Amino acid sequence: MEVNCLPVGICSWNYELSGSGLEARTSLSMMGESGGVSVNGRAFSINKSGVLAPKWLMEEGSQVIAEASSESLLTRAMVIFSGADRYVLSASSAFGREFELAGKNAQVRYTPSHMFTRRAVMSGQCERAELAVFGFWLAALSWKRSQNNSASSSSN
Questions:
Q1: How many CA atoms lie within 13 A of 92 on its CB side?
Q2: pTM flag (> 0.70)
């Protein structure tokens, strides 16, 4: 699969994803680290809980579809559980913005188009489109955090 991930506006962290039979939208809240995704007509909410050990729950209605948590405070990696299945979302390198999702029947790469853009491409394979999009949402959250951290450190 190859899916184009385009921000809905020049300064937006909300995306439209399309390609390979996938139509999806992601949204990150302006404040905090919650939001939602829609995948081929299905709507999912994503809510963060906890401060020292944060977790993100992806829910469809009241049913938890997936749960993500940081693997370590020292790495840019998250563990995602969906039922009994375990997935790992991790940065491809210590300095780049590319992420990879690996797990049961899933090998997906989230690659920014180039250094100075929020556009990205999602490629690879994943049996469950909602998990691939959740992985992208988490990668975009990491990119947003990184930009916010850069902006706040340069203003000091």
A1: 12
A2: yes
Which of the 8 DSSP states describes residue 134? H
pLDDT along the chain (156 residues), means of 10: 94 95 95 94 95 91 96 81 96 87 96 89 97 97 80 56
Q: Tell me, letter by letter, the H, E, C secondary structure of the chain.
A: CEEEEEECCCCCCCEEEEECCEEEEEEECCCCCCEEEEECCEEEEEEEECCCCCEEEEEECCEEEEEEEECCCCCCEEEEEECCEEEEEEECCCCCCCEEEEECCEEEEEEECCCCCCCEEEEEEECCHHHHHHHHHHHHHHHHHHHHHHHHHHCC
If you search the block for the tokens 């997935």, which residue do you land on? 87
Question: Considering only CA atoms, which of 82, 52, 56, 60 is closest in space to residue 69?
Answer: 56
d(Cα 35, Cα 15) in Å, to the nearest integer? 12
How far is 132 from 126, CA to CA, in rounded Å? 6
**CB of 63 closer than 8 Å to CB of 45:** no
What is the model's pLDDT at position 145? 82
